[in-house]
Amino acid sequence: MAAGVDSFRALLRAANALLQKRRYHAALAVIKGFRNGAVYGAKIRAPHALVMTFLFKSGSLREKLKSIAQATYAHSRNLAYFVFTYKGLLAAQSRLQGKKIPFHSFLAACIGGWLVFGDNNPINSQIIMYLLSRILFGLSRLAVEKGYIPQPKQDPFPLVAALVWGTVLWLFEYHKETLQPSLQSSMTYLYEDSEVWHDLSDFLIYNKRTDSK
């Protein structure tokens, strides 16, 4: 028993010593990036899938739990693969050119995005739309910071909010099929289901009446 504990401690010391070696930093960063991508993907997707599934999807409890598990696994796996690919390509480019330049990040992420997120499915679609909105905000701020467009005299956010909500509700009312399915479900719940009721039970307590009366 004592010998086993000593062996484990020796192995642990060797592993910790390896992690401190600078020469392996790039490779170890790729491995930890894979780990962090998997964990973060699961943390983000699991609660979202749980809420959306129980709010908007029908089916048995087993089917709902299976759907949640599949969505969580897909998000976790894809993010882990992407971080692994991105950091690996970044390290390879830096090693080949002897230094890190901004284009390396762009190229590595483009290749990773194509390989990992190129399949047009609901999970990837949600992730890309999430990123797209933040890219637009980021590029707008960068354009002001670099002087490509003048600094607004007033906060433009109220105008952006008005245009975003005006556009999305117009699309929902007249071109619903162009919107992503989960957004359609959310907006149907908010704006269409609120038009229908039969008595107090499905007016205040439930969204839809489940009995046959």
UniProtKB/TrEMBL annotation:
One of the Pfam families matching this protein, by short name: Tim17
GO cellular component: peroxisomal membrane
PANTHER family given in the database record: PEROXISOMAL MEMBRANE PROTEIN 4
Protein name: PXMP4 protein
Native organism: Machaerirhynchus nigripectus
Phylogenetic lineage: Eukaryota, Metazoa, Chordata, Craniata, Vertebrata
Gene designation: Pxmp4
